[in-house]
Design brief:
about 230 residues, alpha/beta, eight-stranded parallel β-sheet, 8 helices, about 30% helix, binds ribulose-5-phosphate, binds fe (ii) ion, Ribulose-phosphate 3-epimerase, D-ribulose-phosphate 3-epimerase activity, Aldolase_TIM, EC 5.1.3.1
Length: about 230
């Protein structure tokens, strides 16, 4: 559990060349690949489904970190597990049966994550802490890349770090993560940084520098980068 994980979000990749973009990010030093699944219902945007994730699975051995922004979610969990996802994260706001969704993910042999929208209180996690491997704090309103980090989420990150205690749960922060915001996020207790626009900006020749810059920013907060 040591070290900060850098997880570029392919939401900011060139969708016409997703395989090549994923490989380039892996070669550039990414730790995980973050995949944003949106349905145009839970969030006002549509991206891709398990077919695209299955197509990317042979491209990299990195952890595929799947962020499901879809409702309903339960009917699709098995398909995302079969697609080759390693971590499957569902939203607490998704419906009344969060615990059931998490049980289903773990029963399929995958790591289970819970995400909270910016307005959702951390108490939503209280009764599932022993059923999860990852908590994802949305630090922008979900749906789009390139938005600004919402500073109020730093208090939530701190509160969740307290709640986690000695449990082996990763605390992921997603939205507006840049070399400027990363130090505060890591200081507050985040240990997985999702970066879309900050990781992909400038094109493939810049990816290694972008990742290195995020890693340096995280380390400047006193964390040990992996
Ligand atoms: O879940 C997401 C949006 O709903 C994305 O992972 C997130 O927005 C990443 O993009 P950026 O780093 O540009 O903010
Ligand atoms: Fe995401």
């Amino acid at each position: 559990m040591t070290g900060v994980v850098i997880a570029p979000s392919i939401l900011s990749a060139d969708f016409a060349r997703l395989g090549e973009e994923t490989r380039a990010m892996a070669d550039a030093g990414a730790d995980w690949i973050h995949l944003d699944v949106m349905d145009g219902h839970f969030v006002p945007n549509i991206t891709f489904g398990p077919g695209v994730i299955a197509a990317l699975r042979p491209v990299t051995s990195l952890t595929l970190d799947v962020h499901l922004m879809i409702s309903p979610v339960d009917p699709y969990i098995a398909a995302f597990a079969e697609s080759g996802a390693d971590v499957i994260t569902v939203h607490a706001e998704n419906g009344p049966h969060l615990h059931r969704s998490l049980q289903a993910i773990r029963a399929l042999g995958k790591k289970a994550g819970v995400s909270l929208n910016p307005a959702t209180h951390e108490s939503a996690l209280q009764y599932v802490l022993d059923d999860i491997d990852l908590i994802l704090v949305m630090s922008v309103n979900p749906g789009f890349g390139g938005q600004s980090f919402i500073p109020s989420q730093l208090d939530k990150i701190r509160a969740i770090r307290e709640m986690i205690g000695r449990r082996a749960i990763r605390l992921e922060v997603d939205g507006g993560v840049t070399p400027l915001t990363a130090p505060q996020i890591v200081e507050a207790g985040g240990d997985v940084l999702v970066a879309g626009s900050a990781a992909f900006r400038g094109g493939q020749l810049c990816y290694a520098d972008n990742i290195a810059e995020l890693r340096r920013a995280a380390a400047s907060a006193g964390a040990i980068a992996v």
